[in-house]
Known about the structure:
This protein is an all-beta fold and about 180 residues long. The protein has one helix spanning about 160-165; strands spanning about 10-15, 20-30, 35, 45-50, 55-70, 85, 90-95, 105-115, 120-130, 140, 145-155, 170-175. The strands form two sheets. Strands 1, 2, 3, 5, 8, 10 and 11 form a seven-stranded antiparallel β-sheet that branches. The longest helix has 5 residues, at about 160-165. It starts with 10 loop residues before the first strand and ends with a strand. The protein binds calcium ion (2 copies). One calcium ion binds near residues 132 and 139.
Amino acid sequence: xxxxxxxxxIIAATSGLALAGFESSLRIDVSGYEFRDELGDPxxxxxxxxxxxxxxxxxxxxxLNLTTLTDPGASFPSxxxxxxxxxxxxxxxxxxTTPGGVENELNTGSAExxxxxxxxxxxxxxxxxxxxxxxxxxxxxxxxxxxxxLHFPFPPAPGPLAAMGVGGLFAARRRR
Length: 176
Ligand SMILES: [Ca+2]
Ligand SMILES: [Ca+2]
């Protein structure tokens, strides 16, 4: 199956303008992203984008429309509770807690993070599945209207972000 990579819609909401101590958030459209194999598998989809070097990510909120898929050789679908999103190898969210297949299940929530991006300033989101029902293929997929909001302090430490606006470069790639 050839994955559909949507054009990312970026809505950068900056609250508090130049006042220190406020939080900013960045919305990331993750519609069409697939949960394929276990964490670190080369077939997994990874969404990578530049934010700001050494920026501290303080949390995430999510709105994810999840559908699980059935391997051609199986009689039941992958479980929703197996879908996860890893953040830079430093944080993780489990998308659903449903022990079974789902169709367009809406999952919303939020979590506090406290991790710092590396010197390259990239956020790396890896979509993975904790029990690989269908090796090399998608176990689940995110439907239209799926998004994540990343939260971080505003303004960030001096750096490229301040000069160029939030989210300088966005790209979707597969890990090799
Ligand atoms: Ca699975
Ligand atoms: Ca799989």
